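Dear Dr. H.,

I hope your travels went smoothly. While you were away I took the liberty of generating a structure for the chain from your last submission, since the lab meeting agenda had it listed for discussion. I wanted you to have the full record in hand beforehand rather than looking at slides cold. The sequence, exactly as received, is reproduced here:
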Amino acid sequence: MVELSYCPECGARLRRHVLAGEPRKHWFCAVCDAPRHAHPLIVVTCFVSCGQRLLWIQRNLEPQRGLWAIPGGYLESGETLAQGAARELREEAGVLLPSQRLQLYMTGAITFINQVYVG
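The corresponding predicted structure, in token form, is as follows:
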């Protein structure tokens, strides 16, 4: 696995940091005040509904801290899509749902829109 040393957004040196509610350390940029992921390629979200209601979370981390979002985040090494979605749901909303109970709704690709080159 590739280890990060510098922030891909601002170029500052990264440090290891434990995010609230998570057992493992993540790379973190103190300048951007945001976590940085070694392989930010696959994102999972978990849509949870009850009747006509949909579960939303209020973001606790940058970017867009304080705004409302659907629980989700980056897939971690070795996880299936369902395992990653269940983990994000637990970490962000405190909802425990076995990954076997999740159904794949959609897959797709988004054109990479946030490229930053630091030389």
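Two observations you may find useful: The longest strand covers residues 25-29. The chain has a mean pLDDT of 81.

With kind regards,
E. W.
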